[in-house]
């Protein structure tokens, strides 16, 4: 097993830091050393910031010495390279932004800084968050710590792999169609994508604005609760950020699941699903029922439409959001343009990778005159139907459960030639983004030595409930404690 | 064949706000390039727009002023195109659901009649930046971008194709210009680009009710140019049509130096803007309360005020219209009328001497060196016959150049009217004695000569003799008494 404090939670570490049993500087130095030792095999970081991390650790130690600080003070974390960080390169894993240093912090970053979290650096991802395998990064693919011949999932694959391999205690991620939950499932960790609008999108480089949401990848629901607590809440800089009070996520973690109504959509546990995955999902649901929850079979009849609708809406928005990367003001600019069109064409042609270009082209097409009604408008109608499906379901149940992904982590390169096969890996996660609902993935029993994720979907702003149910499951099982062995990491 | 001209205008008016429509950066004109552009205006990765509520308030005030329907919900959309001065690769504008719906304004025609012009919609949008080309950087072939204007709030006011001549188009544009300044939502400064007009124009056979193919003339920044551009374009299109040709739908540019319009791009080259609702901004919900608060301090509107002026003060439509050209003008008039108690006298002086002087110095009424109180001081001396109307003009000139108040000027320049009959009589006698030929002519029945005597007496008295007394005395004396 990796030489990391097994099973030590953020809460427990915070207590040790407060008792001065160790310092944040020691902890941070440990984690930096672990990155140094293991990340060449994983490629989970794009940028590591040791000096800034140690400085932040020292600041945290001073706060702790004064008896100040909260549960995140002095805790080493990492940020997906989609979050702008003042003075530190934010690349979005694209050649386009290889040289971009933002003059501001994303709100999520500044809130975690204020909470005293220590950022170790910026994690790898699919380029502009477009991908389900982390193979579209300009900085090369991330490897799954459970099997380095396999993908970690995407797009928050660097964050997932870093947390799974114990290179940080938690990491930020973003989820547009499953980009937190699917890599969390593939890497055997806990990931939560809150309600759309729960966390500010300010300073988070946009992929598809109406779907993007910041969230957390951590080793347990309890750890995720601490991190989300610091990130969530209203931000006047983001008009779509919800002005809703943030409950204290930690206080409700121990509520009993007795009487909890669990909805299991028949579309999610269909006969086509890999029977081994179906079996471990059923096992987890059964465990919750043993704890007092009631199972209800439900239907989300329009869920089959979610992938096609998503692959209209998300590219449409991305084609517009990525238009600003034109070589004029920042980012990559081609050498010696002969005129304006040449400047645009070559800067964008050189700066963007294949998957990003594919989605920009799709998005441009579905928004163009003559096709808007047939594609974009139709997709928005499907989106409404999907929301209505969920609202009907939440009239009957408190939480919806199912698999996070239809497969375990697949081999590097297995789906790169078939974008549609890649898109279908997000089939169970996409509908919550279309509806704006919170979703979570927690590890259940592995299949053939590879992690499997159970997905929990809640009603709007029901993050506390998701974290509570996930925590109860993790109190009653030890799936989330499994760690990739060091041997696997070096194979 | 007789042709009918069909014109519709799109007017971009810059809204008067301290900060931009979606960012906190300032909007002052003339700042050093890129000093008033923040990360949001530059479209840096990760930044998000937040709507400036003041901009919506201004739009609502305009909507109320033109009696428009105001939808409860309006939506911001992205208009996508690439241009170096458009930082995000899209302009945030409104498309399907504008903030101001259908309304109308009345324009005064040259024959004195009124015509109602439909306003299709008015929508909010952000301005783009400005490209600065070779002439700025020398011959190096470099271009620069100034993003100070990027994100400046604009209200685009779109008319129905109800205008039938360049005169009507100018009257409509002036009306909108008057209105946006009147209600305080824009300074309307055309030199600074705060008020710009795009004109759509087509011709059709008189009596036809289908529209002809139109050309759009972009970015006209003066009423005079609007008139000239439309005249040129009517001629151009008529020539094409009368030669049996077809007008092509295209965007044209008016070149004021050559007084012609030129093709900018054809319909085929036109962008597909790929409008869609901006997912970074929520729909704007406007309720009755917001409208009530936004419009609570709206001044009496110009049409109502013009009607009231005509009615209350017995002014001609033309004078009432001139005096309600701007709120400042109307205020000036009402203060002056109240001060002197004679509205028509006040109107005559304001539309006459004052308007001419302002015009000559290219000054706005708000910057007039003669205040309403100053003018009242002058008018009072006319009313009490201390000075004649003619002398009053000299006093006005003194007021204009700052020689003090009317009384001081009259005293200093010795302009007080002579009403003393004895003094006038001696001048009259002298004039009659000096001009025996004319006396004879007059007495022979040539009444016209009377004016000559009046002129001579006024001249002798340096204009200060009371004309009534002069007339009476002359009449008496010439009659041979």
From TrEMBL, chain A:
<comment type="function">
    <text>Allows the formation of correctly charged Gln-tRNA(Gln) through the transamidation of misacylated Glu-tRNA(Gln) in organisms which lack glutaminyl-tRNA synthetase. The reaction takes place in the presence of glutamine and ATP through an activated gamma-phospho-Glu-tRNA(Gln).</text>
</comment>
<dbReference type="InterPro" id="IPR023631">
    <property type="entry name" value="Amidase_dom"/>
</dbReference>
<keyword id="KW-0436">Ligase</keyword>
<dbReference type="Pfam" id="PF01425">
    <property type="entry name" value="Amidase"/>
</dbReference>
<protein>
    <recommendedName>
        <fullName>Glutamyl-tRNA(Gln) amidotransferase subunit A</fullName>
        <ecNumber>6.3.5.7</ecNumber>
    </recommendedName>
</protein>
<dbReference type="GO" id="GO:0016874">
    <property type="term" value="F:ligase activity"/>
</dbReference>
<feature type="active site" description="Charge relay system">
    <location>
        <position position="155"/>
    </location>
</feature>
<dbReference type="InterPro" id="IPR020556">
    <property type="entry name" value="Amidase_CS"/>
</dbReference>
<comment type="subunit">
    <text>Heterotrimer of A, B and C subunits.</text>
</comment>
<keyword id="KW-0067">ATP-binding</keyword>
<keyword id="KW-0547">Nucleotide-binding</keyword>
<dbReference type="InterPro" id="IPR004412">
    <property type="entry name" value="GatA"/>
</dbReference>
<feature type="active site" description="Acyl-ester intermediate">
    <location>
        <position position="179"/>
    </location>
</feature>
<comment type="similarity">
    <text>Belongs to the amidase family. GatA subfamily.</text>
</comment>
<feature type="active site" description="Charge relay system">
    <location>
        <position position="80"/>
    </location>
</feature>
<dbReference type="InterPro" id="IPR036928">
    <property type="entry name" value="AS_sf"/>
</dbReference>
<keyword id="KW-0648">Protein biosynthesis</keyword>
<dbReference type="InterPro" id="IPR000120">
    <property type="entry name" value="Amidase"/>
</dbReference>
<feature type="domain" description="Amidase">
    <location>
        <begin position="26"/>
        <end position="467"/>
    </location>
</feature>
TrEMBL record, chain B:
<dbReference type="Pfam" id="PF02934">
    <property type="entry name" value="GatB_N"/>
</dbReference>
<comment type="subunit">
    <text>Heterotrimer of A, B and C subunits.</text>
</comment>
<keyword id="KW-0547">Nucleotide-binding</keyword>
<dbReference type="InterPro" id="IPR023168">
    <property type="entry name" value="GatB_Yqey_C_2"/>
</dbReference>
<dbReference type="InterPro" id="IPR017958">
    <property type="entry name" value="Gln-tRNA_amidoTrfase_suB_CS"/>
</dbReference>
<dbReference type="Pfam" id="PF02637">
    <property type="entry name" value="GatB_Yqey"/>
</dbReference>
<keyword id="KW-0648">Protein biosynthesis</keyword>
<dbReference type="InterPro" id="IPR042114">
    <property type="entry name" value="GatB_C_1"/>
</dbReference>
<comment type="similarity">
    <text>Belongs to the GatB/GatE family. GatB subfamily.</text>
</comment>
<feature type="domain" description="Asn/Gln amidotransferase">
    <location>
        <begin position="331"/>
        <end position="478"/>
    </location>
</feature>
<dbReference type="GO" id="GO:0016874">
    <property type="term" value="F:ligase activity"/>
</dbReference>
<protein>
    <recommendedName>
        <fullName>Aspartyl/glutamyl-tRNA(Asn/Gln) amidotransferase subunit B</fullName>
        <ecNumber>6.3.5.-</ecNumber>
    </recommendedName>
</protein>
<dbReference type="InterPro" id="IPR004413">
    <property type="entry name" value="GatB"/>
</dbReference>
<comment type="function">
    <text>Allows the formation of correctly charged Asn-tRNA(Asn) or Gln-tRNA(Gln) through the transamidation of misacylated Asp-tRNA(Asn) or Glu-tRNA(Gln) in organisms which lack either or both of asparaginyl-tRNA or glutaminyl-tRNA synthetases. The reaction takes place in the presence of glutamine and ATP through an activated phospho-Asp-tRNA(Asn) or phospho-Glu-tRNA(Gln).</text>
</comment>
<keyword id="KW-0067">ATP-binding</keyword>
<dbReference type="InterPro" id="IPR006075">
    <property type="entry name" value="Asn/Gln-tRNA_Trfase_suB/E_cat"/>
</dbReference>
<dbReference type="InterPro" id="IPR003789">
    <property type="entry name" value="Asn/Gln_tRNA_amidoTrase-B-like"/>
</dbReference>
<dbReference type="InterPro" id="IPR018027">
    <property type="entry name" value="Asn/Gln_amidotransferase"/>
</dbReference>
<keyword id="KW-0436">Ligase</keyword>
<dbReference type="InterPro" id="IPR017959">
    <property type="entry name" value="Asn/Gln-tRNA_amidoTrfase_suB/E"/>
</dbReference>
<dbReference type="InterPro" id="IPR014746">
    <property type="entry name" value="Gln_synth/guanido_kin_cat_dom"/>
</dbReference>
């Amino acid at each position: 097993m990796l030489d990391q404090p097994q099973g030590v939670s953020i809460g427990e570490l915070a207590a040790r830091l407060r008792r001065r049993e160790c310092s944040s500087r020691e902890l941070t130095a440990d984690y930096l050393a672990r990155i140094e030792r293991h990340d060449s095999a994983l490629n989970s970081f794009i940028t590591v910031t040791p000096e800034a991390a140690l400085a932040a650790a020292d600041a945290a130690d001073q706060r702790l010495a004064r008896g100040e600080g909260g549960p995140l003070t002095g805790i080493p974390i990492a940020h997906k390279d989609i979050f702008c960080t003042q003075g530190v390169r934010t690349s979005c894993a694209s050649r386009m932004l290889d040289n971009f240093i933002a003059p501001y912090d994303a709100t999520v970053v500044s809130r975690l800084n204020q909470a005293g979290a220590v950022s170790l650096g910026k994690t790898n991802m699919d380029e502009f968050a477009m991908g389900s395998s982390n193979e579209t990064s300009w900085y090369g693919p991330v490897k799954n710590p459970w099997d380095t011949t396999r993908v970690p999932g995407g797009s928050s694959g660097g964050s997932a792999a870093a947390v799974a391999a114990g290179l940080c205690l938690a990491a930020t991620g973003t989820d547009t169609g499953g980009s937190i939950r699917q890599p969390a499932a593939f890497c055997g960790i806990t990931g939560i994508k809150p309600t759309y609008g729960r966390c500010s999108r300010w300073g988070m480089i946009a992929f598809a604005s109406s779907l993007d949401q910041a969230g957390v990848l951590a080793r347990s629901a309890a750890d995720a609760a601490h991190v989300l607590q610091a990130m969530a809440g209203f931000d006047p800089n983001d008009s779509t950020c919800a002005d809703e009070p943030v409950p204290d996520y930690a206080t409700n973690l121990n509520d009993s699941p007795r009487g909890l109504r669990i909805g299991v959509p028949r579309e999610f546990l269909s006969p086509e699903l890999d029977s081994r995955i179906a079996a471990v999902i059923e096992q987890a649901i059964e465990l919750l029922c043993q704890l007092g929850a009631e199972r209800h079979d439900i239907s989300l009849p329009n869920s089959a439409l979610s992938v096609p609708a998503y692959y209209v809406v998300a590219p449409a928005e991305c084609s517009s959001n990525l238009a600003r990367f034109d070589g004029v003001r920042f980012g990559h600019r081609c050498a010696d343009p002969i005129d304006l069109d040449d400047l645009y064409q070559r800067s964008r042609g050189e700066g963007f990778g294949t998957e990003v270009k594919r989605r920009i082209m799709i998005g441009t097409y579905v928004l163009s005159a003559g096709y808007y009604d047939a594609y974009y408008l139709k997709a928005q109608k499907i989106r409404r139907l999907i929301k209505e499906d969920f609202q009907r379901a939440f009239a009957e149940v408190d939480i919806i459960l199912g698999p996070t992904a239809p497969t375990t982590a697949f081999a590097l390169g297995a789906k790169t030639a078939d974008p549609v096969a890649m898109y279908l890996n997000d089939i169970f996660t996409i509908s919550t983004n279309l509806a704006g609902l919170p979703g979570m993935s927690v590890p259940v029993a592995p299949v053939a030595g590879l992690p499997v994720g159970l997905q929990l979907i809640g009603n709007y702003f029901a993050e506390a409930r998701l974290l509570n149910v996930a925590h109860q499951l993790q109190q009653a099982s030890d799936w989330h404690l499994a760690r990739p062995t060091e041997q696997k990491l070096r194979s | 064949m007789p042709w009918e001209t069909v014109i519709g205008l799109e007017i971009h008016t810059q809204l008067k706000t301290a900060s931009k429509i979606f960012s906190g950066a300032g909007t002052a004109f003339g700042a050093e390039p890129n000093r008033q552009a923040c990360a949001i205006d530059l479209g840096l990765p990760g930044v998000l727009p937040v709507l400036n509520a003041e901009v919506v308030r201004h739009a609502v005030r305009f909507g109320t002023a033109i009696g428009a329907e105001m939808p409860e919900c309006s939506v911001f959309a992205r208009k996508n195109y690439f241009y170096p001065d458009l930082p995000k690769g899209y302009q945030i504008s409104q498309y399907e659901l504008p903030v101001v719906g259908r309304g109308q304004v009345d324009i005064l025609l040259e024959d004195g009649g009124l015509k109602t012009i439909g306003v299709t919609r008015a929508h909010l949008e952000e301005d783009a930046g400005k490209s600065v080309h070779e002439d700025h950087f020398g011959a190096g072939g470099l271009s620069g971008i100034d993003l100070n204007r990027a994100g400046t709030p604009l209200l685009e006011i779109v008319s129905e194709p109800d205008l039938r001549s360049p005169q009507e188009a100018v009257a409509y544009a002036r009306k909108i210009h008057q209105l946006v300044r009147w209600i305080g939502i824009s300074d309307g400064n055309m030199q600074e680009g705060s008020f710009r007009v795009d004109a759509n124009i087509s011709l059709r056979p008189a009596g036809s009710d289908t529209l002809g193919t139109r050309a759009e003339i972009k970015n006209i920044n003066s009423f005079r140019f609007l008139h000239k551009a439309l005249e040129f374009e009517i001629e151009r299109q008529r020539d094409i049509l009368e030669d049996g040709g077809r007008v092509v739908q295209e965007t044209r540019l008016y070149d004021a130096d050559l007084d012609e319009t030129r093709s900018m791009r054809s319909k085929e080259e036109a962008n597909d803007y790929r409008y869609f609702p901006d997912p970074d901004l929520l729909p704007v919900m406007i309720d009755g309360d917001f409208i009530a608060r936004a419009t609570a301090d709206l001044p009496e509107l110009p049409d109502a005020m013009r009607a009231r002026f005509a009615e209350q003060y017995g002014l001609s439509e033309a004078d009432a219209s001139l005096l309600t050209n701007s709120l400042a003008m109307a205020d000036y008039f009402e203060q002056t009328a109240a001060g002197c108690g004679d509205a028509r006298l006040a109107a005559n002086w304001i539309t006459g001497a004052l308007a001419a002087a302002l015009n000559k110095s290219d000054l706005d009424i708000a910057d007039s060196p003669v205040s309403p109180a100053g003018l009242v001081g002058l008018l009072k001396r006319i009313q009490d016959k201390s000075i004649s109307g003619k002398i009053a003009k000299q006093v006005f000139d003194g007021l204009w150049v700052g020689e003090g108040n009317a009384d001081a000027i009259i005293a200093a320049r010795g302009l007080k009217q002579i009403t003393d009959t004895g003094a006038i009589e001696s001048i009259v006698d002298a004039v009659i004695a000096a001009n025996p030929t004319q006396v004879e002519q007059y007495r022979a029945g040539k009444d016209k000569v009377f004016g000559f005597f009046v002129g001579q007496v006024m001249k002798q008295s340096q204009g200060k003799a009371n004309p009534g007394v002069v007339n009476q005395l002359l009449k008496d004396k010439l009659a041979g008494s």
